[in-house]
Amino acid sequence: MANQSDELDGMFQALGDPTRRAVLERLGSGPTPVRELAEPFKMALPSFLQHLRVLEDRGLVHSQKVGRVRTYRLAPQPLKAAEHWIVTRRAHWERRLDQLDSYLQELKKQQS
Amino acid sequence: MANQSDELDGMFQALGDPTRRAVLERLGSGPTPVRELAEPFKMALPSFLQHLRVLEDRGLVHSQKVGRVRTYRLAPQPLKAAEHWIVTRRAHWERRLDQLDSYLQELKKQQS
Q1: Cβ separation of A79 and B89 shorter than 8 Å?
Q2: Which residues in chain B have their CB less than 8 angstroms from residue A78's CB?
Q3: How do residues A24-52 score in pLDDT, each as one tens digit?
Q4: How much is the pTM?
């Protein structure tokens, strides 16, 4: 239980940054060498590598070094836990609020 | 575009904490006075209130003070943006990876 919660913490924290989300979007088009991946970001390379490290620690990307080139690729499977958390709760909560709303409307009608 | 990205940052950062997720879950059962909401958490009240402030800043909860009692209620609608981001991308990325996998399997077959 604690582990699953830690996993969700890490996943949501990884997604809560525009650079990291943009990297995931870029890798959605295919594996990319780190230099090419860093290019669109106006950021010092060490800061950019720090973002990649966060994504790799969460299992959202994998990297492989061939010769002098490290290439990153996407691993979208761990996103499922975060997706599941949001999807199940939001739908349920909105349904509850709708029910409460209908109930209040009904009460009002009965009183008027 | 920048605004939408900021909104996603805030939303994912708000969800990346176990106390804040637990508060949302608790509020899923109905509006709750702040003291009652704080009770299960072994945490100083000011720290707990800070978590509530983060959730309220993101629009995920609303509060109302009646007399001396502040009551919080859930506002799940803003979660939609975060849900949409994850759901659209993950499904698309997994499909792409599956296609790539089938293609590689096909190549292997042809070569053997």
Answers
A1: yes
A2: none
A3: 999 998 999 999 999 999 899 999 999 99
A4: 0.86
